[in-house]
Amino acid sequence: MVKFEELKKKIPTQITVLGGGSWATALVKILCENNVKIKWWIRRKSDVDFIRKYNHNPSYLTDVVINPRKVKTYHKMSDALNGTEYIILAIPAAFIPSTLKDLHAKHFEGKKIVSAIKGMIPDENILVTDWMEKAFNLPLGNSCVIAGPCHAEEIALEKQSYLTIASPKVETAQSFANLLNSRFLQAHAIGDLYGVEYCAVIKNIIAIACGITRGLGFGDNFQAVLVSNAMQEIKVFLDKVYPATERDLNSSGYLGDLLVTAYSQFSRNRTFGNMLGKGYSVKSAQMEMNMIAEGYYAVKSIYLISKSHDLNLPIIDAVYNIVYGKANPKEEMGRLKGHLK
User: In this protein, which residues make up the domain named Glycerol-3-phosphate dehydrogenase NAD-dependent N-terminal (predicted)?
Assistant: First the structure.
């Protein structure tokens, strides 16, 4: 007679992924390494049809093979949410309210919500997990966030990678981390949801700053000082906005995620900043990239939060002044030099 626990292990975990971008595609690839069934919602119907026919995402990470035995694509979101255990959000933060506007609390009832978004809800200036909790009356213990250091492009190449999963209920984080662990990826769980989520947001802003300095012709020496000062700004922000007794900012979910975003050629926020440093306007840089740089929206939110707490964050201020205040990048970074040590 088969024991219940043994039978349970053979039943695939039902997961919904919302979003059709590179990170969503990478997460689908990772999850397919384990015993899962995935319902994948993608906004563009043409992409849904293409994946069904050719088992590749035509718009992002086009070399990744989508396993048709484990993955079904959907254009109607409500169908993708039926009968699932986990819902992974991989939609740019700015589009979360409009994308989910037709959903109700019942769609999320009894399900675990995983945010793979490293941004904030514009205008409301709140984290994605906070917005979801308020919009759909979700228990925070059923939510978790994914942090790096990890780029979708390296997942596509199956390069060894690491993820940090954070939730106020560590058991929730660990259960999802178990679904990610595979031959080329290791995931571990921690309890600092807000600390990890805020850090993931701010590191995108720092990546824009790094890109700007590169575009202006600054070298490795300056970027090393910029990033080390940025880590201090992150600490100042977190200690004031969301203090925690158990938080190691030197661990990979914080410092590691910052480093990979600040230095990597795959970082879209760094690319966005690089274009600004080279003289592109914000609008022209966004149009040429054809991808969302979360730091563009996040810097306004973090700037306003920092000012409400009377915090001195020179790097955040500099990026805000360039992106929203239309400050000259060369002049603004020239002023920033005097604040770094």
Answer: 14-171
